[in-house]
Amino acid sequence: QVQLVESGGGLVHPGESLRLSCAASGFTFSNYVMNWYRQAPGKGRDLVARITRTGSSTNYADSVKGRVTISRDNVKDTVYLQMDSLKPEDTAVYYCNAEYAFGSSIQYWGQGTQVTVSS
User: Fold this and answer.
1) Where would I find the beta strands (DSSP E) of the chain?
2) Phi, psi values for residue 40, rounded to 5°
3) Among residues 81, 91, 83, which one has the least CA distance to residue 34?
4) Among candidates 22, 12, 27, which has minimal Cα distance to 81?
5) Mean pLDDT, rounded, for 79-97
6) Minimal CA–CA distance to 6: which of 18, 16, 15?
7) In this structure, how many other beta carbons lie within 10 angstroms of the beta carbon of residue 92?
8) Quick check: 13 and 58 in contact, CB under 8 A?
């Protein structure tokens, strides 16, 4: 059974940090590009960060560049999102996504974790 389980969300003040985790099971984690998306209230789901299978390459949305770091541990089958200098506009539900790296459209989603940045 495929599972992506996010954790680490919560309520923080502007300028603070959070580290999100996404634990994967039920598939070969190292065969998947891993992504973090977010969806703010009333808006679409946007890509925040992306990491290749080995972690050798990462990409970030312009809105989070310099404040967010994506990483992965292919032994623990877990992907992380370190978010620093959080802003109120970072408030959203954050979703973990696994995208098969070898040409098919297979992908999996987690259930999401809420991040709220408010003073």
Assistant:
1) 3-7, 10-12, 18-25, 32-39, 45-51, 58-60, 68-73, 78-83, 92-100, 107-109, 113-117
2) -85, 160
3) 81
4) 22
5) 98
6) 18
7) 22
8) no
Rg of the Cα atoms in the chain = 14
Map tokens 């996504």 to a residue. Answer: 97
Query: What tokens appear for 80 in the block?
Result: 């992380």
Residue-wise pLDDT for 5-38, tens only, equals 999 999 999 999 999 999 999 999 999 999 999 9
pLDDT at 103 over 90: no
Question: Is 37 within 8 Å of 64 (Cβ atoms)?
Answer: no
Decide if 3 contacts 26 (C-beta within 8 A). Answer: yes
Q: Determine how many CB atoms are found less than 10 A away from the CB of residue 66.
A: 9
Supply the pLDDT for residue 54: 96
* pLDDT of 105 higher than 90: no
